[in-house]
Design brief:
Length: 345
């Protein structure tokens, strides 16, 4: 075995005491004599041949498991092969170089305890990742919704789940957050139901509107006839009769069905004369039948015209503009009767 671990120390000692350095190539020859060339070659083979071979085996296993089972299980198998394999290759390489692994393992244990206390969140994410892998609420390539975030699952890793949204953004969600939150798997089942909220005017006939909506849904090739489309009457809105058209379709046709149905319903309502109202308000004076009275006073009021109230009186025409403002005309007080006239004489 070569003493590679003591080589840096020897070089430092020689640099600190140059007088003791052997001249020529004697020191280099002594150092090379300590090196176990076959062990060095084996260590290099473990690093530069073993790791690429391990990665190739991992990729082949992932492809095979994907064809046989699912992409999520393939990712799990790939990690189970790569991580222990890399660790084993590093240990074998250090052993070939002559390192004593007992002190290293002891130090790693102490460091591991300290790191464990400092990284409780990471440990929680790792444990949550095992729950996600075992429970399988969703798989790779599923579309899920976590809170307000909707995206396609790219990977389920040890610490987090990675998503790609429909506007091509990359989002990383910790496993602990997913375990604690409500997760909706949109693509779990092969078919989905599309609900369209539609409002019509109060004057429209509901059975006629229902018939038109059923005909539009039945004519669309993306809508499924089993389960059949349904029209629900949700109630009386502020400005419309609220209806809901429920149509089943394959999950890959969901958005295309929504767009085409909205366009077809608008075109069919226009041809049938069915009114889609907009919000409006009516003012009443308290009676149910008579509207609020409105009287037009003038078509246009000049900007310089003054508005006189009942308590004010305008200045007569021809009055001097420079004269001071006259006090408002007050009516004379009513004449009071002589209090002595009503008294008995």
């Amino acid at each position: 075995m070569m003493d590679v671990a003591g080589l840096p120390v020897a070089l430092l000692l020689q640099a600190a005491q140059p007088d003791t350095v052997v001249t020529g190539f004697d020191f280099l020859s002594e150092t090379l004599a300590r090196i176990d060339i076959p062990a060095l070659i084996r260590a290099l083979l473990w690093l530069f041949v073993g790791i690429p071979l391990l990665l190739a085996i991992s990729r082949w296993l992932k492809r095979w498991v994907t064809r046989q089972y699912s992409a999520q299980q393939a990712m799990v198998v790939g990690k189970l092969v790569v991580y222990p394999g890399v660790l084993l290759i590093l240990v074998l390489t250090l052993m070939e170089l002559g390192f004593n692994l007992a002190p290293l393992l002891g130090a790693a244990g102490v460091v591991g305890i300290a790191v464990g206390f400092a990284s409780q969140t990471s440990v929680s994410n790792v444990i949550s990742g095992f729950f996600l892998i075992g429970e399988k609420p969703f798989e790779v390539d599923d579309v899920i919704q976590v809170g307000e975030t909707v995206g396609r699952v790219l990977s389920i890793d040890t610490l987090s789940v990675k998503l790609r949204t429909f506007d091509n953004r990359f989002i990383r969600i910790p496993n602990e957050t997913i375990v604690k939150s409500q997760v909706t798997t949109i693509t779990r089942f092969p078919i989905r139901r599309l609900d369209l909220n539609i409002g019509v005017a109060y004057k429209e006939d509901i059975p006629r509107v229902r018939t038109v909506l059923m005909e539009v849904a039945g004519a669309n090739p993306r809508a499924l006839m089993e389960p059949e489309p349904t029209v629900f009457f949700d109630g009386y809105g502020d400005s419309s009769l609220d209806l809901r058209l429920a149509v089943w379709t394959m999950r890959e046709n969901f958005f295309s069905l929504r767009n085409t149905l909205l366009e077809e319903i608008k075109a069919r309502f226009d041809s049938e004369g069915i009114e889609i109202p907009f919000p409006h308000h009516s003012l009443y004076t308290g009676e149910a039948t008579e509207p609020f009275p409105i009287r037009i006073v003038a078509d246009r009021i000049p900007e310089d015209a003054g508005v006189a109230t009942e308590a004010e009186e305008t200045v007569p025409r021809g009055a001097d503009s420079d004269a001071p403002d006259a006090p408002p005309h007050e009516a004379p007080p009513p004449a009071t009767a002589d209090p002595l006239e009503d008294e008995p004489r």
